[in-house]
Every structure is written in C-alpha cells, then in structure tokens.
Specification:
- It is built from one helix and ten strands, in the order αββββββββββ.
- The relative contact order is 0.36.
- With 153 residues, the protein is mainly beta.
C-alpha cells in the first residue's frame, strides 16, 4: 500500500471533532482589522496535537481587495493561532463562495479548546463576508461552516 493510501485510510485523519453551521442570514463588514465571523468551535485536542480547520464563507468583495480568513483563540479575535490565509483576490466587484483548510499544531492532547473564525482584507475599503438563507432573493447565501477535524500529518 502506498503512503498516500495509508494517509487517506488512516483512522486518525479527518475525524470531525466539532462543526458549527450557521444558516441565519448575516453579513460582516470586513476591512483591514480582524473581524469575527459568527462561527466558533469547541473541541478536545487529539493525541497528536494536530487539527485541521475548514472554513466556508461567501465573500462579496470590493474591487482590488485581497480577502482572507484565519483562526483565533479568543472571541475578540485578537489572539491569532492560525494566521489569515488568502481565500480570494477580487479584481473587480466579485461574489464567490470560499472554502479553505488550514492546520494548527502543538495542541495539548485531551485539552479543550475554543476557536473563532475571522476575516480581514488588505484595505480599509471594506468587503462583505455573508452567510445564511434569505429565501429565493439575492440574499440567499450558503451557510457559514467551521469544521475542526483530526490531522494525522
């Protein structure tokens, strides 16, 4: 069996520890400072101290903006544990659903952690990060999803 097959079939990979799905219609105005998205997750760290975060959010971006998401360990998102990663570069005025995975290591096995997703852009000219069901109108966005899973890498 090849190494990649062992990773894919490993019981320690991809086990969901926590998942927060928010389909209540929301919008956050995001600029050059961290802005908490509503999603948060509580989980117990696995034995190897490694987790993978998966974040899904809809971005309604302003022209020439680099849109990012990251993970913080406090509700005011000032303590960043996974730096913001690029999810979209908006060259005009674009709308896109973004899904990104990122890893955190060095957690203490068996310890309970809380994490919050945040958004940030490269400019004080804001973009909107949106989620939630709005009916059959132009405000019908997909849910915000924050998933925490084991990472055996």
């Amino acid at each position: 069996m090849a190494n990649w097959e062992k990773v894919i079939t490993s019981a320690s990979n991809g086990i969901i520890l926590s998942q927060k799905v928010d389909d209540t219609q929301q919008s956050r105005t995001v600029g050059s400072s961290n802005v908490k998205l509503k999603g948060f997750a509580n989980f117990v760290a696995p034995a190897n101290g490694k987790v993978m975060y998966e974040i899904q959010v809809w971005v309604d971006g302003a022209s020439s903006k680099l849109c990012k998401v990251g993970v913080a360990s406090n509700s005011n998102v000032s303590t960043v544990v996974v730096p913001a990663r690029r999810i979209a570069y908006v060259d005009e005025s674009d709308q896109v659903i973004c899904n990104i995975k990122m890893m955190e290591t060095g957690l203490t096995a068996g310890t309970t952690y809380s994490r919050w997703a945040f958004g940030i852009t490269n400019s004080s000219t804001t973009s909107a990060y949106k989620w939630g069901y709005g009916g059959t109108t132009s405000t019908d966005w997909p849910p915000l999803i924050l998933t925490v899973m084991t990472a055996g890498l």
